[in-house]
Amino acid sequence: MVVTPWVIAQLSENATSTAIASVIAAAVAGFAAWATQRTAAAAAVRNQSVASRTDIELAAFERAKTYYTDTIDRQDAEIHGLEDDVSGLKTEVAGLQQGRREDRAEIERLADELAVAKAALHMRYPDEF
């Protein structure tokens, strides 16, 4: 093959085009790699944030569930205690009502005795009343 100035010019022009194309391809590849890395980093941060938020929400839910369960159990115990108190108070009220009936009967009996005693005094001392 004979190397002529025209062949050298053609080779030189092809080499320059190839070099420019190689630089452009390298720049595009570099930009693509940077964009891919940035997108991957953002996805990793987002995934970690979502996972972290999910873990926080699960922990908060568990605390709330425990709190509400404990509260319900405590209130159930208080209700049973109050029911026992009400039962005791009902028994006490029934006893007081019975005592009140007995006291009324006693008052009526004493009122009758007083009326008899008053009548007896009135008969014995008619001028005093």
Q: Please give the alpha-carbon distance between the first and last residues.
A: 169 Å
**Gyration radius from CA atoms, angstroms:** 54 Å
Structural class: mainly alpha
Unreliably modeled segments: none
| Helical content band | over 70%
Please specify the SSE layout and strand pairing:
Layout (H helix, E strand, L loop, with lengths): L4 H120 L5
Which key features would you list for this structure?
129 residues; mainly alpha; rod-shaped
Description:
There is one protein chain. This protein has one helix at residues 5-124. The protein is rod-shaped. By secondary structure, the chain is an all-alpha fold. It is built from one helix and no strands.
Give a quick rundown of the structure.
This protein is mainly alpha-helical and 129 residues long. It has 1 helix and no strands. The N and C termini lie far apart (169 Å).
